[in-house]
From TrEMBL:
It comes from Brassica napus (Rape). Its main location: membrane. The chain crosses the membrane at residues 93-115, 135-154, 174-193, 205-223, 243-262, 283-305, 343-368, 380-401, 413-434, 446-467, 479-501. This is Metal transporter Nramp3. It is a multi-pass membrane protein.
Length: 560
């Protein structure tokens, strides 16, 4: 029978449910999740398509709409001011020749984000929580510190970008530090919107993404880039010695460490019956579609920015000096005013990018801190703490560097280095976790998918390693600095090797000894009587305390 044919598949673990789950910090409470309404004829269709045997229900536009949201919040990291600066510099220096790389870099980013979403849906936990549970305490704390540093570096760029936009739109009336303070208030806007539900928050982000799309599409229409050169740039790979550094930058800034943590938490905002394997598969399918659409939109916005600056500044004396601070004025000088001056159109798009990315940064900070430290505190307090970690250094930066474009560019390079350093500490744990049956059950990725994912991760890590090498070779001098960098590099490499080695010989938390001597995993598939689900239990046979066993053992829920 179909049930017998699928038994071996359905007897594999689907997800983890611990007895003490209610005592842990969770990404979303049950009352906050979006309810996925089932159609009236779902039961008949389930039987018709055999979804109880492991398949997924047929496609529904209504359900796609209900699952739409997390992917677009995730896509904002592809549109933050740091990425926009990379786009405009790539266009000015390399013209249309790196558009193919932008497209493939976005595809690589999509692959990583789909793995993050898969991990969150299949396990019911986000990446920060799993890192806390699956790694030793010392390693988990190192990963937490690295994630926080990456978030702070990204947040400084985003807040500065938003402050630059405010300065543009007020004709310089408000200095950079004032724009930083105004942008800092977005965490309270975020908390206010979150009280009205996740769908309202997602609607605000949709408006901000739409604002970016309209603003940069308007610029695209005003600049009128060459259609044939654009098409050739997308379809024909081309690199030169002059564009190699910008090419490396295009790939390096696509994958943001905090975004990998964020997406694995966002996907838990939907109510999914994790006791039914086909419902989990359905959620993964819809998130895949939604995330793909979201990143296609982000690619088009990035393409608009790149081609506008390629048209206006490629092969000009200004190409090497253009940056986020002076880009608006250069656009105004090149394309003039008109009914809606392009300077203000650029400012509006940049403001939307900065505001949306800083709010998602606040969101990511909550999940990272809550997941790694298992803090149970009020959301407003946690948002205030995570926002302060970025805003205080950003205000200092704004006061020190407000009068100098050159020093802001140097600061931006250092911040890019800071984030590049952190990338392996998000990618390696993600790939190790999503490849393990003990963690993912039947939703672990297969050998082919693993190979592609590790190749992409290796490529991104090597590219960012190249950036680091280039940067330190030009910026670091002197015996003391060289010695410090050498020690840091050795420690950094050793920790990466440790993460990879532990991924190969992985021992998840439910098999760790802790205070017990040995665990034996016993699968007991129960018959479907009295509405009992198939289940399994981890038992310590060496313990004489039955109460202790009952409290500390872990339960798996198997697919029906």
């Amino acid at each position: 029978s179909p049930e017998d044919m699928s038994r071996s598949e359905n007897d594999r673990p689907l997800l983890i449910n611990r007895i003490d789950e209610e005592e842990e910090e969770r990404a979303y409470d049950d009352t906050e999740k979006v309810h996925i309404v089932r159609d009236e004829d779902d039961n008949e269709r389930d039987l018709e398509y055999g979804v109880g045997c492991g398949g997924a229900p047929p496609f529904s536009w209504r359900k796609l709409w209900l699952f739409t949201g997390p992917g677009f919040l995730m896509s904002i990291a592809f549109l933050d001011p740091g990425n926009l600066e990379g786009d405009l510099q790539a266009g000015a220096v390399a013209g249309y020749s790196l558009l193919w790389l932008l497209m493939w870099a976005t595809a690589m980013g999509l692959l990583v984000q789909l793995l993050s979403a898969r991990l969150g849906v299949a396990t019911g936990r986000h990446l920060a929580e799993l890192c806390r549970e699956e790694y030793p305490t010392w390693a988990g704390m190192v990963l937490w510190v690295m994630a926080e540093l990456a978030l702070i570096g990204s947040d400084i760029q985003e807040v500065i970008g938003s402050a630059i936009a405010i300065k543009i739109l007020t004709n310089g009336l408000l200095p950079l530090w004032a724009g930083v303070i105004i942008t800092a208030l977005d965490c309270f806007v975020f908390l206010f919107l979150e009280n009205y539900g996740i769908r309202k928050l997602e609607a605000v982000f949709a408006v901000l993404i739409g604002t970016m799309a309209v603003a940069f599409a308007w610029m695209f229409g005003q600049a009128k880039p060459s259609g044939s050169e654009l098409l050739v740039g997308i379809l024909v790979p081309k690199l030169s010695s002059r564009t190699i550094q910008k090419a490396v930058g295009v790939v390096g800034c696509i994958i943001m460490p905090h975004n990998v943590f964020l997406h694995s938490a966002l996907v838990q905002s939907r109510e999914v019956n994790k006791r039914q394997k086909y419902r989990v598969q359905e959620a993964i399918n819809y998130y895949t579609i939604e995330s793909t659409i979201a990143l296609i939109v982000s690619f088009m916005i990035n393409l608009f920015v790149t081609t506008v600056f390629a048209k206006g500044f490629y092969n000009t004396d200004l190409a090497d000096s253009i940056g986020l601070v002076n880009a608006g004025q250069y656009l105004q000088d090149k394309y003039g005013g008109g009914l809606f001056p392009i300077l203000y159109i650029w400012g509006i798009g940049l403001l939307a990018a900065g505001q949306s990315s800083t709010i998602t940064g606040t969101y990511a900070g909550q999940f990272i801190m809550g997941g790694f430290l298992n803090f149970k505190m009020k959301k407003w307090l946690r948002a205030l703490i995570t926002r302060s970690c970025a805003i205080i250094p950003t205000i200092i930066v704004a006061l020190v560097f407000d009068s100098s474009e050159a020093t802001l560019d140097v600061l931006n390079e250092w911040l890019n280095v800071l984030q590049s350093i952190q990338i392996p500490f998000a990618l390696i744990p993600l790939l190790c976790l999503v490849s393990k049956e003990q963690i993912m059950g039947s939703f672990k990725i297969g050998p082919f998918y693993q190979t592609i994912a590790w190749l992409v991760a290796a490529l991104v890590i090597m590219i960012n390693g190249y950036l680091l090498l280039e940067f330190f070779s030009s910026e670091v001098s002197g015996v003391i600095y060289t010695g410090f960098v050498t020690v840091f590099t050795a420690s950094y490499g050793a920790f990466i090797v440790y993460l990879i080695a532990r991924g190969i010989n992985f021992t998840p938390w439910r098999f760790k000894a802790e205070s017990y001597s040995s665990y034996v995993l016993v699968y007991k598939v129960l018959k479907m009587k009295n509405n009992l689900s198939p289940s399994a239990i981890v038992v310590d046979f060496n313990s004489s305390n039955n109460t202790q066993i009952e409290k500390k053992c872990s339960f798996f829920v198997l697919s029906e």
